[in-house]
Design a protein that fits this description.
There is one protein chain. The chain has 194 residues and is mainly α. It has one domain. It has eight helices and no strands. α3 packs antiparallel against α4. The mean pLDDT is 87.
């Protein structure tokens, strides 16, 4: 049996939701143009993924008890949409500059496959509530780590003229993501969270 601590570190490193499972690429690529925006988006994703995972767990148990577990996808999406709406209103009220820097991408957390993927993973892996919380928080941290690393490399490349013209922009971003994904392979076997 895997401990919640193993699940937490495994979801950050060798089971990184962005770099191992390749989930959440749209906002990862779009927002990673600078570290400040990446950090803000990463924190928003950590919050939403952790909260929705912990909210969806008892909801899923209720659906199973009522023998309507097949509704989990619909219910998970509704929970995610409500959580993101709350987060969007909160950031707009208290951090308007951050809200404006997100533009369209903050509401897109609702359809970010990372958020839904974490909820579906805990169902498929039959995690307990504590394991779900550890996996959700670790997956959010792992995604945030990926976007901040990518943003740091992209900022550095933007100041450098060494990037060939044909690879500048998204082309080099995909190459960097591939290299980061290869780096995650080095942690394979660190934790078994299946």
């Amino acid at each position: 049996m895997t401990s919640p601590l193993e699940i937490f570190f495994g979801s950050i490193l060798d089971h990184n939701i962005a770099l191992a499972y390749i989930l959440g690429m749209c906002p990862l690529i779009a927002i990673s143009t600078n570290i400040r925006n990446a950090r803000g988006m990463g924190l928003a994703v950590v919050f939403v993924v952790t909260l929705t995972g912990m909210i969806n767990y008892p909801i899923y148990l209720l659906l199973v008890r009522l023998d309507v577990a097949w509704l989990n996808l619909l219910v998970f999406i509704i929970t995610i949409a409500a959580t993101v709406q709350f987060l969007e209103m909160f950031i707009d009220k208290f951090f308007p500059r951050l809200y404006n820097s997100f533009g369209l991408f903050l509401p897109l957390i609702t359809v970010n496959c990372v958020v839904l993927g974490v909820s579906l993973f805990f169902v498929n892996r039959e995690y307990s509530f504590v394991e779900t919380a550890a996996f959700s928080f670790g997956s959010g941290i792992g995604w945030m780590l990926a976007i901040i690393l990518l943003a740091g490399v992209r900022e550095k490349m933007a100041r450098s003229s060494d990037v060939p013209k044909g690879l500048a922009g998204k082309g080099m971003t995909f190459i960097v993501l591939g290299i980061l994904a290869l780096a995650v392979i080095g942690f394979t076997g660190l934790a078994s969270i299946q």
